[in-house]
Design brief:
The protein has 15 helices and twelve strands. The chain is an alpha/beta fold. The strands form two sheets. A nine-stranded mixed sheet has the order 1-2-6-5-4-3-7-8-9, with helices on both faces. A hairpin with a 2-residue loop joins strand 11 and strand 12 (about 345-350). Helix 5 runs parallel beside helix 6 (about 145-155) and helix 6 packs across helix 7. The longest helix has 22 residues, at about 45-65. The chain is globular and about 60 Å long.
């Protein structure tokens, strides 16, 4: 519990500290030491500042426990492996619903809040088709394209993940409370913000890095030139994820942002098959990817040793695979029981002879 409180305390620091905290944790510094150092830099009375941070963290954890909300810290084996590769991962993810879904193969579908009927239809259909083929659909639970994507995944009986710019007990917009409950049944609603945090304009651009970070690709369905969806696309490019876009009506100007992405080299999307092809998956599902990972000469298994955890950077260096190709393979091997996650984004080979 004490280490969880340290991670929660780090999440309460100013947002510009996130990348610095991630760098310190990746370097092996203990979270308690990072909290103490940042408290000292923040206030002349370091002890009082550190005490306040820990007290606030304890209240946040208590509130979460009372509401049935799970707190997944950076060092927890359940922490989403894809997020460990981004420059500024959340130190804690607060989760409603099913934690295991955060490590599924996922695609983000984002777009305009004031979406056209065409965009709503496309978002729902793409989400339905991808979810039916075993992919989780990630979006922001906002009006318009986001909610259409969530509903499409639910209609297919699949998994969808909603990422909030508020605490997970403060659904925004409020009319999506029922949709959030539907998402909880098979997927998850998550946030990096402590329970009770109300929505605020500056939280939404920050949460976009989590939407893209959880996903192997980001699909922009409809976006104008100032759309928040373009922030998600930029985050995806920074994180090494694929960016795809759906073409729209050139006469209305509602999709100029997505058309700009297409001009810059984003893959054009006309159906779910285009997305699966970009990800190297056959349209029939994920079976082929899993079969590849099961190969006896798998290069990832070859560079892992039973009982010796390795982080993603080390595995990438040994295997020669980049993050976008490495993560799906690691998740497949984990599902097969060939490797196990031990927290902090580290993996260890499972010795099957024991």
């Amino acid at each position: 519990m004490s280490e969880l409180l340290d991670f929660v305390a780090l999440s309460l620091l100013p947002t510009w500290r996130r990348r610095h905290a991630a760098e310190a944790l990746r370097a092996g510094e203990r979270p308690s030491a990072v909290v103490a150092r940042f408290a000292a830099a923040r206030s002349p009375d370091a002890g009082a500042c550190e005490g306040t941070l820990r007290a606030d963290a304890a209240r946040a954890v208590a509130r979460a426990q009372a509401a049935g909300i799970a707190a997944i810290a950076w060092n927890d084996a359940a922490y989403p492996a894809p997020l460990t590769t981004i420059p500024d991962p959340p130190t804690v993810i607060w989760t409603r619903g099913h934690i295991a879904t955060l490590n599924m193969h996922a695609v983000a579908i984002v777009g305009s809040r004031a979406a056209s009927p065409y965009a709503l239809s496309v978002a729902e259909q793409l989400a339905r088709d991808l979810a039916a083929r075993g992919l989780a659909i990630v979006s922001g639970l906002a009006r318009g394209v986001d909610s259409a994507a969530h509903r499409g995944a639910i209609a297919a009986g699949g998994v969808t993940i909603g990422v909030l710019g508020s605490g997970v007990d403060r659904i925004y917009p409020a009319e999506h409370a029922a949709l959030a409950r539907q998402i909880d049944e098979t997927g998850a609603v998550i946030s990096e913000l402590v329970p009770g945090t109300p929505p605020a304009p500056f939280f939404f651009p920050l949460r976009n890095r989590i939407i893209s970070g959880l996903s192997r690709a980001v699909v922009v369905v409809e976006a104008n030139e100032k759309s928040g969806s373009l922030i998600t696309a930029r985050c995806a490019l920074e994180q090494g994820r694929d960016v795809l876009a759906v073409p729209g009506n050139i006469l209305t100007g509602r999709n100029r942002g997505a058309h700009a992405l297409l001009r810059d080299g984003a893959r054009i999307v006309e159906s779910a098959d285009d997305i699966l092809e970009e990800l190297g998956m056959h349209a029939s599902g994920l079976g082929s990817a899993r079969a590849d990972s099961a190969s006896r000469e798998d290069p990832i298994l070859a560079c892992l040793t039973p009982g010796e955890p390795s982080d993603l950077d080390a595995i990438a260096e040994r295997s020669g695979l980049g993050a976008t190709k490495l993560l799906p393979r690691l998740l497949d091997l984990e599902l097969q029981g060939a490797i196990a996650r031990v927290g902090g984004g580290r993996f260890v080979r499972v010795d099957r002879t024991c």
